């Protein structure tokens, strides 16, 4: 069998009293997209920085294509490309000059750097703007250029840290297409994201990260299966009575307590039997609780995160505020 592209064992990263990573373990198979899903501050960016040899872990070990990130950082850097949340490009240079410069830093001969730069710019639909200063680029164009610069060396492993944060839907779709192309070409991709749809679409395996630990791992289908057969979503007309509605619906839940959003008047619970929706209506009607909306849905990755942590990915951001900043 082919050895994993990335191996991490017991990675811990502490910044004084802040623990960003708390014993993280994972393996990433070659030629796959591995998604790290979690809110801001969960430890995703810190882990990417460890893999990129930008941070020395407090404890544990990690290796990329067999090279230890601490013992052999230069070998690791020669085998990875890194694109983060913010485009790291020179605004005074043109797009072409930026990519060619990175190619030269990869020690490519000048003609080869020019050829690969042209290929990358074409691939990311930047050829028409290639000879314009980057200062004239939109945010989405800069993000694509940053990704292109990291691709010019044709690294076998790509580390993408929330590459689509803040992008418009069209640009996000273009980057998704690029990630899928990379995987088809055999590149191993580690993708951190807080977008559920992104992880669901792109990743062959997903790890849910919370408080610096992996709390669940599997394919999207496997993770969703942990929630239950289906998810019943009920929104009551009077949000003040949400807790009362949750108490009435709790006996219908398949294993887990209902998730309650009091502000929205919503109760969500995993159910094993589709007929639970009819029973939910009967129970709430008997209590005089008017229903504003009721829907039986297939579980989503958001439901997985809710089940594991009791919070939505977006809502968890406030709980972790400052942790990644400290990193």
Structural class: alpha/beta
Shape: elongated
**CATH architecture assignment name of the largest domain:** 3-Layer(aba) Sandwich
Number of helices: 13
Please state roughly what percent of the residues sit in beta strands, choosing from under 5%, 5-15%, 15-25%, 25-35%, 35-45% or over 45%.
25-35%
CATH topology heading of the largest domain: Rossmann fold
Looking at how many chains there are and whether they match, the oligomeric state comes to: single chain
Reading side by side through the largest sheet, how are the strands ordered? 6-7-8-3-9-10
Structural domain tally? 2
* Assigned CATH superfamily of the largest domain: P-loop containing nucleotide triphosphate hydrolases
How would you state the average pLDDT, rounded? Answer: 88
- Uncertain ranges: 318-327
User: How far is the first residue's CA from the last residue's CA?
Assistant: 36 Å
Total number of beta strands:
14
Helix content: 25-40%
Instruction: Compute the CA-based radius of gyration.
Output: 23 Å
The level-1 CATH class of the largest domain: Alpha Beta
In a nutshell, what does this entry contain?
The chain has 327 residues and is of the alpha/beta class. The protein has 13 helices and 14 strands. Helix 3 packs across helix 4 (110-123), helix 3 (95-105) runs parallel beside helix 5 (139-151) and helix 4 packs across helix 5 (139-151).
Can you characterise this structure?
By secondary structure, the chain is an alpha/beta fold. Helices cover 35% and strands 26% of the residues. It has helices at 44-51, 73-77, 95-105, 110-123, 139-151, 169-184, 196-202, 220-225, 242-249, 276-286, 301-309, 316-319, 323-326; strands at residues 6-15, 18-28, 33-37, 59-64, 67-68, 80-83, 157-161, 188-193, 205-210, 213-218, 230-236, 259-261, 266-271, 291-297. β7, α6 and β8 form a beta-alpha-beta unit. The longest helix is centred in the middle third of the chain and has 16 residues, at 169-184. Mean pLDDT is 88; it is low at 318-327.
């Amino acid at each position: 069998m082919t050895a994993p592209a990335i191996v991490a064992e017991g990675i811990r990263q502490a910044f004084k009293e802040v623990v960003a990573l708390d014993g993280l373990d994972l393996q990433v198979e070659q030629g796959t997209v591995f998604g790290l899903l979690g809110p801001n501050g969960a430890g995703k960016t810190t882990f990417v920085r460890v893999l990129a040899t930008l941070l020395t872990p407090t404890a544990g070990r990690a290796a990329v294509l067999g090279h230890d990130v601490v013992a052999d950082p230069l070998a690791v850097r020669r085998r990875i490309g890194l694109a983060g949340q913010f485009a790291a490009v020179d605004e005074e240079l043109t797009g072409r000059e930026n990519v060619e410069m990175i190619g030269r830093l990869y020690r490519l001969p000048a003609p080869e750097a020019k050829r690969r730069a042209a290929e990358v710019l074409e691939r990311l639909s930047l050829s028409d703007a290639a000879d314009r200063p980057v200062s004239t680029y939109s945010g989405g164009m800069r993000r694509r250029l940053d990704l292109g610069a990291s691709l010019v060396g044709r690294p076998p492993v790509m580390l993408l840290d929330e590459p689509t944060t803040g992008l418009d839907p069209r640009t996000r779709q273009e980057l998704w297409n690029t990630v899928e192309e990379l995987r088809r070409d055999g590149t191993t991709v580690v993708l951190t994201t807080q977008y559920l749809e992104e992880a669901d679409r792109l990743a062959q395996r997903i790890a849910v990260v919370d408080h610096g630990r992996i709390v669940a791992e599997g394919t999207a289908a496997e993770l969703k299966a942990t929630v239950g057969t289906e998810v019943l979503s009920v929104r009551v007309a009077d949000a003040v009575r949400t807790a009362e509605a949750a108490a009435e619906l709790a006996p219908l839940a398949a294993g887990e307590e209902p998730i309650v959003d009091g502000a929205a008047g919503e109760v969500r619970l995993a159910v094993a039997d589709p007929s639970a929706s009819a029973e939910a209506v009967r129970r709430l009607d008997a209590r005089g609780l008017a229903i504003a909306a009721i829907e039986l849905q297939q579980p989503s990755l958001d439901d997985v995160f809710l089940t594991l942590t009791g919070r939505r990915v977006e809502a968890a951001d406030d709980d972790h505020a400052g942790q990644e900043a400290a990193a």
